[in-house]
Protein 1
Amino acid sequence: MDYFRNIILVAAIAGIVAGIGMTIAQHFVTVPMILKAEVFEEQSSAVDAPAAEAAHEHGAEATGHSHDHGEGWGPADGAERTFFTLLANVVTGIGFALLLVAASELLGGLSGWRQGVFWGLAGFVIFTLAPGLGLAPELPTMPAAELGARQLWWLGTVVSTAAALWLLFYVRSLPATVLAFALLVLPHVIGAPQPASHESLIPENLHHSFVVAVVMTTLVFWGLLGGLAGDSRERFIGQA
């Protein structure tokens, strides 16, 4: 019982600290880019609003009905938005830490922070780098394919990449290596779902900078998560 409790403790420590670190990095790196993109979104809405309102009023007059459509709730800019971002990052960090620690325990456990960093880099490749080759991070107002299709492709890419890394590092045979490379390229041969058009109000250089920023902040997140998991595992589980 203590063993499983310590696994949860290790995941909680790594996830909370990595989530806080991710939030700080996002606050200074990616959030300003998102706010810039939201300006383009507001400008687009301001242009489209008069025509949409006129069409709505015309339809209401024709049918004799009036509708008041309110916008869905969203956190206010500033402290409230930062708080909910922090909460989401901590929950995500704990979830990923549980996956990382559980998988590493099945394969012998982490023997320190250095090995933890390597496992974190593997998590980065599996959950960020490989899917990002087909589905780049998006800013507000950018076109995207149907959500269900994107989620299915993302999940298939994650599973395929994880299996490939396991074959490369833990099976280590010629057939396993060949199969691993096949699994790495298969999702990209199939291709990620794409929108009908890639036209967007977002400047290309802003989107490019955002993609680079997301990749770098996520790399720091996974490195921190793995290193903390390895160090905490050695302290709480290794000694036990």
Protein 2
Amino acid sequence: MNAKSEMAAPDAATATRPLRRDAERNRQLILGAAKVVFAQRGLEASLDEIAKEAGLGVGTVYRRFPNRDALIDALLDDTVASIERIVDEAAELPRAWDGLVYFITEMLEKQGNDKGLRDVMLTRESHLNEWGPEKDDIIRAKVTPVVDHLVRRAQQEGDLREDVATTDLGIIMIASVSMVEFTAAVAPDIWRRQLSITLDGLRARPAGATIPLTQPPIDDAQLDVCMTGWKYGSRQTPRQRPKPC
């Protein structure tokens, strides 16, 4: 190697370092923009929209994330961590009822402000590729035992009616998220009113003061079938037009 080459080598190595920093900076810009765009418009938003929000060229976005699924997968890592935090905080509350209320409220709060997350939670089958079975397993392993324990404790403490099952809460959560989606355009916080009504129905009452539940609860396997088979939204569930009079 001649003297000129020896002098050029450090310069070339140094020149690559800002590029690496720029690449990481662009990655964070893209992730930040994707959070905003997906939260506002849902997972159907395009990479072009995300590039515009980030102030970057579309080519830069595609170099970092070859498709929308790869970008969604990166964002879902943050979602998993957030859900784990909510579950941990719910479990630490002294009264199990308060833990259940906190868990349900925080999850609805998070999804109420994030249409992209609502899309994932409400369309598990169609977005399972983005979510990934490993993330789904993490959520199940973390959430289900804690909620089961809170349900049993809340019943033992006399706050939750004894005929409520954990799967009942799962259905209530899905129904509530659907309500958030249904009312988001006109009253994005109305879910709080409906949740208050629901929680009142879950409260334990003196003997004879509650209306008996006429059907037994579904089990975990049945709930799983419902979650993976159900579709929602105008693009997935055909809406029947009313017949003319």
